[in-house]
Each structure stands twice: as C-alpha cells, then as structure tokens.
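S.,

As promised, the NAP run. Input:
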Amino acid sequence: MESTKPIVLVVGATGKFAGLVVPELRRRNVTVRALVRDETRAAVARSLGAAEIAIGDLRSIDSLAEATRGVDGIFHLGPAFASDEAAMGVALVEAAQKNGVRKFVFSSVIQPTNTRLENHASKIPVEDAVYSSRLEYTILHPANFMQNIGMAWPSIRDHASFGEPFPTDTRIARVDYRDVAEIAAIALTEDRLAYATLDLCAGMFSRLDVVAALSEELGSPIAALEPGFSVWAAQARLPYTDRQLLLLSKVLDHYRAYGLGGNSLALRAALGREPRSLREYIKDLIAEKKSADARKEYRDA
Ligand SMILES: NC(=O)c1ccc[n+]([C@@H]2O[C@H](COP(=O)([O-])OP(=O)(O)OC[C@H]3O[C@@H](n4cnc5c(N)ncnc54)[C@H](OP(=O)(O)O)[C@@H]3O)[C@@H](O)[C@H]2O)c1
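Predicted complex:
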C-alpha cells in the first residue's frame, strides 16, 4: 500500500537550528526530505532522521525546482549573514508555488523591520514573497536563540565565566529553538497556525540572569564578563568571514544601545503550554555537555 505520510522539505536540515525541526516532524509522522549541498552532508541529515535527500543549493533554481517536487510543506531557515539571503528565500518561495506546495513555514527573525541590521532586513523580501503567494504560510519571528549560550560552554566550563560584548544588565529577548522547532512542526502538520505571523520569545534576560542560573545549576559561581567585540569573536571561533562578523557586530551594538524587546504571549499560545524557560534550557545544556565531556574523557582514556 502506498504511504500517505506527508513529505516536508527542510532547508538547513544539517544545521544546529533547522536540524532540530527534523525530529519534531518525524515525531508527527512526517517524511522529511532534507535539502543538502552535497553527499557528505546527507549523512548528517540522515542521522537526524531525514528519510529523503535532495542534493541542491538555495542558489540553484533548477535544484530547488527538483527538491520541491512532490512535497506537501517546506520549512525554511536562511543561512546566517549571507549577502544573498533574500534572493535565496524568494527563489525557494517561487519554486514552492510552481510545484503547488501547500504549506510554507519561514523561520525569520524578531523585528525584521529593523533595516539597520542587514540580517533582519534580508528577511523582508522573503516575507513579502510569502504574503504575495497562495501558499498556506506561517511566519516565525524568533528572538535571540538560547542555544547561543551553549556555544560558550568551553569558557563556562574552563574559566567559570560567560561573556558577551554588551552590558551585563542589558535584557535580551531569548527563545529556546527547540520550542521554535516544535511550532514549525505544528504549523506544517496542523491547521491552527495557518496564516499566522508569530513573535517567538520566552522572556527577556540579562547576562546576570544567565550566570545566576548557571551558577545555581552548576553549584559554583560563574562570572558575567563584557569583552570587546573582537576579543569575544576570537574566543567564540565563529566560522564567519570579516563581512559576516561586521554584520554580527552591528546586531550586538544594537543590543548595547537598546537591548532586545520581546513578549512571550504568542509563543505560549502557539505551544499551548508554557515555553521552555531559561532555567530549563540551562539545566538541559549542563546535562548534555557533562555527558558529552564524560564520553570524550572515556574515549581519550
Ligand atoms: N542566532 C540567533 O540568535 C538568531 C535569532 C533569530 C534568527 N536567526 C536567524 O537564523 C538563521 C540561523 O542561521 P544558521 O546558519 O546559524 O543556522 P543553521 O541551522 O546552523 O543552518 C545553516 C544551514 O543552512 C545550510 N545552508 C547554508 N547555505 C546553503 C545554501 N546555499 N543552500 C542550501 N543550504 C544552505 C547549511 O548547510 P551545510 O550543512 O551545507 O553547511 C546548514 O544546514 C539566520 O537566518 C539568522 O538570521 C538567528
């Protein structure tokens, strides 16, 4: 008997954020088709649960025509700080329409109308293309991802400190991307989030809030530091070009000047439960990192 499971194309399925959408879709009995750039990355997508692989590139219209054929829905997250992010997203929306795809979920950014930040402004043409289509869309406006805190684990573990290049008491809207992934999967498998544009934020937290939670959960004090941008970027070892780093520094300058506002109302309503809190994220982070560190120690012994 032929399978009637819906097929969803996931863009960024090998990434640390969109990769979280794959298991959420699998849990809802969806066949995940991953858009990956080459065969080596296909293995990563398969390990996360993708059943089908479309080798392609957001910069190749022909490959998007092929990748979107026969799918019921698409999840799209644009690559970070890419100069042609808007063109890539618009091309995907056009391919989706040509192939009669029904549902389209775009993981955009909170406050995309902040045109002083290029990575925010580049979401606007994609949103416009979605609104000017016949796709059944859901647009997600996630706040700063809590998972960015986890990228500082080596400094937290080895130096008992957590630094970011803006004041320690500046409050930033944050969201656990696992909640964003769950909402994306709901939007792609149910009707209740159709035609919604949702700000996704669990709350506003300062770095002092983050280190307080880290210190309590670890049982030893973690200091909140404020390094300059270049020191911070060098320590973070981000895989970015100078241009991408410049765009990121503008985001952090914006935080320094204004913080980042966000409200949890839409996230709570869309989930139908309380969002994952900062404390829950930190607890899970510590458990995950401690068990990964223990596995590494065992292998190295
Ligand atoms: N970080 C935050 O706090 C935050 C907050 C709100 C919104 N955002 C937005 O979230 C996005 C996060 O991006 P990320 O790069 O960090 O996410 P990511 O989940 O790590 O994903 C990057 C993925 O995109 C794929 N990719 C890159 N270029 C591609 C191309 N030309 N064609 C097809 N796939 C391609 C990569 O594939 P490979 O495996 O081949 O490299 C990888 O799977 C950005 O749009 C950012 O503005 C971030």
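The pocket of NAP is lined by residues 11-12, 14-18, 35, 37, 41, 57-59, 77-80, 109, 119, 142, 144-145, 148 (CB under 6 Å). Residues 7-144+175-201+263-275 form a domain with the Rossmann fold fold (CATH 3.40.50.720).

- D.
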